[in-house]
Write a structure and sequence with these properties.
By secondary structure, the chain is of the alpha+beta class. It contains one helix and 13 strands, in the order E-E-E-E-E-E-E-E-E-E-E-E-E-H. The protein has one domain: Beta Barrel (Porin).
């Protein structure tokens, strides 16, 4: 995986890719560092591209949902994210035992942070599309972690919109 081309504490913004539907990317010095593409508007499958490397992210399960991370074309999970029962935080565990914790760090979901297993902050997400690198340590999976965090924020927005639409429909029917 590509090492981080950005210094610690740099703020990056996830941007739409012109002419490519459901695709966002992080640019560094005018070049694509990470690209995240949702395959369908109605399903959770997404691809992450970092240079020549490609992974898939997918929410699976119904009552006990998880998010799987796989290398493209492979069936074994590279990592699995398991949210807590509220879905606002959870743990991403890699097959090699590395763990990251996803937490809401400001009220009303205004900020989310991804922490290493030792408690050190790695990435901080603000306002849905702004991301700040919080670590000076070399994180081999930093581009994948960046896409993963943004993917979780997209799922959270979609879930909130669905709940709002269902509540409005129930209120209108009642």
């Amino acid at each position: 995986m590509a090492a981080s081309p950005v210094a610690s504490a740099s703020e990056l913004v996830w941007q739409k890719v012109p002419g490519v539907r459901r695709t966002r990317e992080l640019l560094v010095d005018g070049r694509t560092w990470v690209r995240l593409r949702r395959i369908s508007a109605f399903r959770s499958l997404a691809t992450v591209e970092v240079g020549p490397d490609t992974w898939t992210l997918k929410r699976v399960g119904w009552f006990r949902t998880r998010v799987t991370v796989r290398r493209a074309g492979e069936t074994d999970n590279l990592a699995v994210y398991t949210p807590n029962w509220l879905g606002s935080c959870g743990t991403l565990e890699f097959a090699d035992g590395r763990r990251y914790r996803w937490e809401t760090t400001k009220s009303f979901g205004r900020e989310h942070t991804l922490f290493r297993g030792d408690g050190g902050a790695v990435l901080r997400f603000r306002g849905g599309s702004r991301m700040q690198i919080e670590t000076a340590e070399r994180e081999a999976d930093l581009p994948l972690l960046a896409a993963f965090g943004y993917y979780l924020l997209q799922l959270e927005r979609e879930d909130s919109a669905a709940v709002t639409a269902a509540a409005a429909g129930a209120a209108a029917a009642g």
